[in-house]
Amino acid sequence: MTVKVRFAPSPTGRLHVGNIRTGLINWLYANGQGGQFVLRIDDTDLERSTKEYEQGIETDLTWLGMGWSERHNQSARFPLYQEAAERLKATGRLYPAYETQEELDRRRKVQLSRGQPPIYDRAALKLTAEERAALEAEGRRPHWRFRLEGKRVKWEDLARGHCEVDTASMSDPVLIREDGLFLYTLPSVVDDIDMAITHIIRGEDHVTNTGAQIEIFEALGAAAPAFAHTTLLVGADGEGLSKRLGSLSIMELREKGYEPLAVVSHLARIGTSDPLEPGASIEALAATFSFDKLAHRAARWDPEDLGKINAAILHGMDYAAAQPRLANLSADLGEAFWTAIRANLSFFGDVSGWARVVGGAIAPVVADEDRAVVEAARDLLPEAIDAQTWSAWTNAVKEKTGAKGRGLFMPLRKALTGLDHGPDMASILPLIGREKAAKRLAGETA
């Protein structure tokens, strides 16, 4: 059997880390099994769906390296959903109900006050044809509910093990709204059947829904796919991410400068037994993916961990990989420059600052108490500068001034770079060059 999975985001907003983790797990599993990953745009809500958000989904997935083998828009498939609905109506599994939301709310309150479960009482099934006609004459339009069989639905979940849901404890789900709009469940099942989806991989908040969906698969004469329900993301503090998702969109992470491999490595490995470190590639992450590695506790999204992974990717990036990006930033000062500064990068864009330090004009920083050290260093600056210059030169300054340790090295760093931190000065000094170094030690902007 060829594995075939689907990721079905709605184009009603930006993809966030919670969406992408679900999509990524689907992608990793399918690619690790030599299978197919289907992108299915859930744009059945025609009022809220936009082409801008749809394009954003494609942009985000492409940036992350999550290519797809098939792509579909559910808005183009309404005839299939209507045909399935008619089949369910013909067998009595889909029936019209006319209660307003206010009426349903009142019934639930009464049920709760009596200690009863607040599930739909199927009053609509007792309506006669005359009663339905009278309600419609009043202007009421029915919503359509799927009649559950009320049984224990069982499946072996790839992520959770043996699962059971008692559909007798559930309300018959609404599949079609009063305005004729298909809700998520029916289109999803119809498409899963039509596209031959073999595995449905999603968050654990859908476990209860699975019981109803399996019954819909069966009512349409199809076997249900395999299921995997993974734990949801929480923040570093253990709290849910729901209130912060606006600031965790993939677009925003991209704009902040995170590497796509850092994002997928972090999302692929949080909540698993794997170490939080960069993968060699998204394909390498897929090759080692296994549901057996997933923990049963919530996965923690921690920006600090993401930052560490991002920095590790940059620190290990060779010049050949970095060179085109350096050129795009007008910061390609050669392999020696990249080798010297990469360990100080948190984001690739930081390289522009170091390019200015080495090749641009900076204002030296010299405190009054450091002036004697800096002036002595200027007088002792060798004519030729190479990788060995820093050690010999600073030893000479130490002998002349008596300065040592931080009192020696920090004044020189600040005078030469304008900063109190940075790469090894033995590597930076030859890149700055003697002419700029002499001017900066003299207090000139250079």
TrEMBL record:
<dbReference type="InterPro" id="IPR000924">
    <property type="entry name" value="Glu/Gln-tRNA-synth"/>
</dbReference>
<dbReference type="GO" id="GO:0005737">
    <property type="term" value="C:cytoplasm"/>
</dbReference>
<keyword id="KW-0436">Ligase</keyword>
<keyword id="KW-0963">Cytoplasm</keyword>
<feature type="domain" description="Glutamyl/glutaminyl-tRNA synthetase class Ib catalytic">
    <location>
        <begin position="3"/>
        <end position="274"/>
    </location>
</feature>
<feature type="domain" description="Aminoacyl-tRNA synthetase class I anticodon-binding">
    <location>
        <begin position="368"/>
        <end position="442"/>
    </location>
</feature>
<feature type="binding site">
    <location>
        <position position="243"/>
    </location>
    <ligand>
        <name>ATP</name>
    </ligand>
</feature>
<comment type="function">
    <text>Catalyzes the attachment of glutamate to tRNA(Glu) in a two-step reaction: glutamate is first activated by ATP to form Glu-AMP and then transferred to the acceptor end of tRNA(Glu).</text>
</comment>
<keyword id="KW-0648">Protein biosynthesis</keyword>
<dbReference type="GO" id="GO:0004818">
    <property type="term" value="F:glutamate-tRNA ligase activity"/>
</dbReference>
<dbReference type="InterPro" id="IPR001412">
    <property type="entry name" value="aa-tRNA-synth_I_CS"/>
</dbReference>
<dbReference type="InterPro" id="IPR014729">
    <property type="entry name" value="Rossmann-like_a/b/a_fold"/>
</dbReference>
<protein>
    <recommendedName>
        <fullName>Glutamate--tRNA ligase</fullName>
        <ecNumber>6.1.1.17</ecNumber>
    </recommendedName>
</protein>
<dbReference type="InterPro" id="IPR045462">
    <property type="entry name" value="aa-tRNA-synth_I_cd-bd"/>
</dbReference>
<keyword id="KW-0067">ATP-binding</keyword>
<feature type="short sequence motif" description="'HIGH' region">
    <location>
        <begin position="9"/>
        <end position="19"/>
    </location>
</feature>
<dbReference type="GO" id="GO:0000049">
    <property type="term" value="F:tRNA binding"/>
</dbReference>
<dbReference type="GO" id="GO:0005524">
    <property type="term" value="F:ATP binding"/>
</dbReference>
<feature type="short sequence motif" description="'KMSKS' region">
    <location>
        <begin position="240"/>
        <end position="244"/>
    </location>
</feature>
<dbReference type="InterPro" id="IPR020751">
    <property type="entry name" value="aa-tRNA-synth_I_codon-bd_sub2"/>
</dbReference>
<dbReference type="GO" id="GO:0006424">
    <property type="term" value="P:glutamyl-tRNA aminoacylation"/>
</dbReference>
<keyword id="KW-0547">Nucleotide-binding</keyword>
<dbReference type="InterPro" id="IPR049940">
    <property type="entry name" value="GluQ/Sye"/>
</dbReference>
<dbReference type="Pfam" id="PF19269">
    <property type="entry name" value="Anticodon_2"/>
</dbReference>
<dbReference type="InterPro" id="IPR020058">
    <property type="entry name" value="Glu/Gln-tRNA-synth_Ib_cat-dom"/>
</dbReference>
<dbReference type="InterPro" id="IPR008925">
    <property type="entry name" value="aa_tRNA-synth_I_cd-bd_sf"/>
</dbReference>
<comment type="similarity">
    <text>Belongs to the class-I aminoacyl-tRNA synthetase family. Glutamate--tRNA ligase type 1 subfamily.</text>
</comment>
<keyword id="KW-0030">Aminoacyl-tRNA synthetase</keyword>
<dbReference type="InterPro" id="IPR004527">
    <property type="entry name" value="Glu-tRNA-ligase_bac/mito"/>
</dbReference>
<comment type="subunit">
    <text>Monomer.</text>
</comment>
<dbReference type="Pfam" id="PF00749">
    <property type="entry name" value="tRNA-synt_1c"/>
</dbReference>
